[in-house]
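The record is kept unedited without comment:

——
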Amino acid sequence: MQPPELPPLPALTRAEGEFIDCYLEVLDQLGRINPARGSDTYGALRAAQALASRAGALRDALALMHERGEAQIHAATLARALRVLDGERRAGRVTVPPAQTS
């Protein structure tokens, strides 16, 4: 059985694509650091170290968009791209999980 086919990624400028990619990389690192979901300090330390470079890349992607005159963030289009790229699950790792009932 084949997995369901994902919807197509919306048309993005190169800078928007870089923005989305960098944003998701930052989310992934934050998810690895999340003390409510983590399992070891070494993994969290490595993620924290990577976060600095990923945040810099995110800043650079946004600066490039601004320099190119892309003054608006098209939230609906970028939200569709985030959904296609599993952004909801990845963002969920940043939140505090619900309390477990005994």
